[in-house]
Amino acid sequence: GEVPAPNGEARCILVFGWGDAAARVLGELAACAQSRRVEVRCVSHASQAPDCDLREVCAGHGFACSLTDDDAEALALASGFGPELIISAFYRKKLSSGVLELARDCINFHPSLLPRHRGCWSGFWTIFEGDAETGVTCHRMVEEFDKGRIVHQEKLAVAEDDTSASIYKKILPVTAVCARRVLDQFFSAGLPEGEEQRGPASYHRRHLPFQGLIQAEWPDVQVERFIRAMHFP
């Protein structure tokens, strides 16, 4: 059976998100809200993705949406809402410990198979390092970036002609599937504690890899991967 909200109140879910991937997660939440008492609010950045304004997405679902880049304002918005679940979906800032302390369950949807490619530019590094597969990891958020326990993973094969742009487009529906599986757990038995991350780990910062320049010592296969990895119009 489903886990009821205390006192029969609506389940409050707060989404920190940006771009089309966050829109996919919001879409899955909207589907959940059709048959349950759920109140969803979204916090996003002042500058919205050119192809996806989350204010419009939220308006279509009847969700409230606030735009801010101020950490104190984001914390105030979250505190005033009192969420039971906090979701980060391609949000472009690290959530403060003050925000993470507001809910028992705080989860992030990350576009790689953690612990590989923590941090930024995961699509680039997936192609550049010749990975055979990628995917989306839902993990619990902790103070250290992308290191929390894994709640669920959805995998996706990487094609020999994939670019960062094509990987991003393929990741979007996989993000939705991952969110659907995780929300099903949340509304039924509750989220599991998750599994510790295992295997070779890597972390990438936000700066442009190799300053966007082909290196003279690279073999041809590495150059070809780099060109595909840099293709994101």
UniProtKB/TrEMBL annotation:
<dbReference type="InterPro" id="IPR036477">
    <property type="entry name" value="Formyl_transf_N_sf"/>
</dbReference>
<dbReference type="InterPro" id="IPR002376">
    <property type="entry name" value="Formyl_transf_N"/>
</dbReference>
<dbReference type="Pfam" id="PF00551">
    <property type="entry name" value="Formyl_trans_N"/>
</dbReference>
<dbReference type="GO" id="GO:0005829">
    <property type="term" value="C:cytosol"/>
</dbReference>
<feature type="domain" description="Formyl transferase N-terminal">
    <location>
        <begin position="69"/>
        <end position="172"/>
    </location>
</feature>
<protein>
    <recommendedName>
        <fullName>Formyl transferase N-terminal domain-containing protein</fullName>
    </recommendedName>
</protein>
<dbReference type="GO" id="GO:0004479">
    <property type="term" value="F:methionyl-tRNA formyltransferase activity"/>
</dbReference>
